[in-house]
Amino acid sequence: MIRIRVIRICAAAAVLAASALTGSAAFAAAGNGAPPVPVPTTCTVNDVEVTGTTIAGTDAVDDIECENGVNEGTTITAGGGGDRIDITGNNAGTVDGGAGADQIDVDGDNLASGVIIGGSEGDIIDVGDNAGQILGGAGGDVIFTGANTGTIDREGDSDVCLPDEAAGTTTCETVV
User: Fold this and answer.
1) In sequence order, what DSSP letters do the residues of 153-168 get, joined into one string?
2) Of 169, 130, 168, 131, nearest in space to 146 by CA
3) What are the pLDDT digits (tens) for 17-55?
């Protein structure tokens, strides 16, 4: 019995270490039936490096950059102001632009499988392939995607959606 637990603990530690090195795993196995442990994400907020499962901006204009993607279990909240959120890598977490006309960009070569929320006012959201949810929020948004197998929901005012391939659900007033 002890040997089995030691093997499980070692396996969980190996998964966590590999996840931290690659930044691609969303959660590390906790073992023993425990819920998964979120793997923190590292981003810069206004040129200051921040690591955690919650990355918060301010009520002013913010520049948030996540060079290794956003892991599942991480939430980015930009707050007020017209923020710029730039994600290089996959987005498996939740990105919320908050109030203000925001620009949210998930590098075109990567997958957005998490949730992206534009927030209030007109936002520009540009993602590679979308397998998650893009929620425009209030305001007239412009939403660009690669292949869309997820959901694009305008959630309010007149939005324009420009998916390369629109196999998923799209509720924008204008789909180009």
Assistant:
1) E--SS--EEEEEEE-S
2) 130
3) 333 333 444 445 555 667 777 889 999 999 999 999 999
